[in-house]
Amino acid sequence: MKIRPLIMADLPEIMTIECKACRFPWTVGNIRDSLKCGYLCFGIEISNKLIGYAILSVAAGESHVLNIVIDPDFQGQGYGTHLMRYLLYVAKRHGAGIVFLEVRSSNKKAFHVYHQLGFNEIGIRKNYYPSEKGREDAIVLALELHEEADFYYINHLIIKS
After folding, report:
1. How many Å apart are CA 72 and CA 64, to the nearest integer?
2. pLDDT digit string (tens) for 89-141?
3. Collapsed DSSP state (helix, strand, coil) of residue 125
């Protein structure tokens, strides 16, 4: 398993994962713009095959997980958790003291993962996401980063190696 920065040439694989995993996928333009504008974009690979990706913004001491997606064939195996831990490490290294994200109110599995990582619910964004029935609320989560975020990720890598 390897986490690496994404490049524009990854766009077709990213879109394949996005369309396979999401009922309402991001557009090619959304992802292309994310790669171009300076967001921190990472892919997770197994045997040189991209199985997921994440997009993170960091500014003014804050970070926001804009998107994180794992191919459905690889979900439930800890890859999303590993990628999130890496994002926390990167956010901290870029000066963020807090990380925010939104999760669909119906996405109980993701909510559980975020809760296990220490995220706390701080609010609701009404009608934030498109859904089959119109719109769906987003639960807004936040995690304050502390020095142990660096230690935990590095320690996790050493244990996994």
Report:
1. 23
2. 999 999 999 999 999 999 999 999 999 999 999 999 999 999 988 999 999 99
3. strand
**Residues 48-87: tens digit of each pLDDT:** 999 999 999 999 999 999 999 999 999 999 999 999 999 9
Q: At a CB cut-off of 8 Å and minimum separation 6, what does 121 contact?
A: 139, 140, 141
Distance CA 27, CA 25 (A): 6
Q: State the CATH architecture for 2-160.
A: 3-Layer(aba) Sandwich (3.40)
Residues classed as catalytic: 102, 114
C-alpha torsion 127→132→133→139, nearest 10: -30
**Which H or E element spans position 118?**
none
